[in-house]
Amino acid sequence: MPSPATTTAVASETKLSIGFINWAHALDHYVMLIFPTVVIGLEIVYGLSYAELIALGTPAFIAFGVFSLPAGWLGDRWSRRNMIALTALGLFAAIYHPVGTAMLIQHATLRGRSLAFNGVCGNLGAALAAGMTAALLAGLGWRAAFLVPGVICVASAVVYLRLVPDEKRKAASRGMVADVPLGAALAATIFGLFVVIALCAGLVFNIVSVALPKIVDERLGSNVPLVLVGGLATAVFMCGAIAQIAVGRLVEKFPPHILFAVIASLQFLGVLWAAQASGKMLIVALAVTMAAIYAQVTVNDLVIARYTADAWRGRVYAVRYFLTFLAAGAAVTAIAFLYGRGGFDLVLGTTATIALGFVVATAVIAVLVNGVEKQRSRVVAPAE
Predict the structure, then answer these.
(1) What is the CATH number of the domain that holds 290?
(2) How far apart are the first and last CA of the chain?
(3) How many angstroms separate the CA atoms of 199 and 323, rounded?
(4) Whether the Cβ atoms of residue 108 and residue 115 lie closer than 8 Å to each other
(5) Is the dihedral of CA 110, 111, 113, 114 positive or negative?
(6) pTM for this prediction
């Protein structure tokens, strides 16, 4: 039995590690959303249209998805801690999600709350990206909007490696049984549905996130300064942070698979409303949409963790984020294509259709796993 001093030291290391995981999540989302705000200012600099410029971000988003596959494998087989250091260093932004999420699940005691707060950190990174990028662009020029965060990433990596020891739990000691085991046929079906969810989630999340500054700029109803556009976009993203805090508590009271389907429905309704709204009501509609988008991310990760063994989580999350961020590359191209042909009416209308596919997939999962969850509850209840 470990001594109290050893237990305290391990708990302290765990808290420090989780703190850096949350910080890395914020940096990851911040960095990926610099360009969508900078591009508004570059329209004047280069004399190109928004559709032409935003399409230039496609390779970055594709790489973000493609490189999550080897990142997840290396995290499971090598060291999740060292992989996170590479993320903070800014070398491979694709590393964070498959590795950081698996690492957080491994360390967390209250998974719902830990995932929710981690999601809030990522949301804050995304939220601050719009406002701070606009401020840096206005004050120091568009190059500073990239250079300043780059310096912060490098400094974070150095501090992380100095303060957080390498993980002692290697691949061989990771659990091989999921919290809620599924039969082979059911597991394969659920996996297939999660492929659909990952693709739909990637498209909805990234179309709305990437297009948000321009939607606000164009549809608010007046000539709005870029700094105010960034500020309003930040406020909308903050609604996602609030929703994640709430959902972190809700998963302790309601079955995650049911909550997942409910939030997916709210996401669809929010996008549909945003497609019809303008002026001040547009901000409200976007706030509802963003709240649902970020809430589903938290529940999505929790549901995957519930049905996946620790030894495989990095690779399963890698596939999920590979598909999600590969869809992100398609999202940027879709924005450019749809916007050039029908403006944001067409962009948001198409996004609502994709969100409906998300609803169907989550509803089918809820129905399929409900029997397994009820059976598990009957087995666990007498033991408690």
Answers:
(1) 1.20.1250.20
(2) 24
(3) 6
(4) yes
(5) positive
(6) 0.72
- What's the length of the chain? 384
DSSP state of 95: G
pLDDT beyond 60 at 6: no
Range of the domain at 157: 8-383
Q: What is the pLDDT of residues 162-218, one digit of tens each?
A: 887 776 555 455 566 666 777 888 888 988 998 999 999 889 988 998 888 888 888
Q: Read off the pLDDT band of 90 (50, 70, 90).
A: very low
Q: Would 188 be classed as within a structural domain? A: yes
Q: Is residue 2 part of a domain?
A: no
CA–CA separation, 160 vs 306, rounded Å? 29
CA dist list (Å): 14 to 68, 163, 172, 301, 321: 24, 12, 20, 20, 25
Amino acid, res. 194 = F
Of the candidates 33, 136, 132, 71, the one whose C-alpha atom is nearest the C-alpha of residue 319 is 71
**Closest listed residue to residue 214, CA positions, set 340, 77, 119, 79:** 340
Q: Which residue type, as a one-letter code, is found at position 140? A: L
Cα–Cα distances in angstroms (integers) from residue 22 to residues 16, 29, 49, 305, in the given order: 10, 11, 36, 18
For residue 3, tell me if it sits in a domain.
no
pLDDT > 90: percent of the chain: 15
Question: Alpha helices of the chain — where are they, by DSSP H?
Answer: 4-32, 34-46, 50-54, 58-66, 68-77, 80-89, 96-107, 111-140, 144-163, 184-219, 226-250, 256-276, 279-306, 310-383
Number of domains in the chain: 1
pLDDT given for residue 113 in this prediction: 82
pLDDT score recorded for residue 383: 46
325-to-9, 35, 71, 211, 381 alpha-carbon distances in Å:
37, 16, 14, 16, 40
Measured CA to CA, the distance from residue 273 to residue 125 in angstroms comes to 26
pLDDT of 319 reads 83
Euclidean distance between CA atoms 321 and 97, whole angstroms: 7
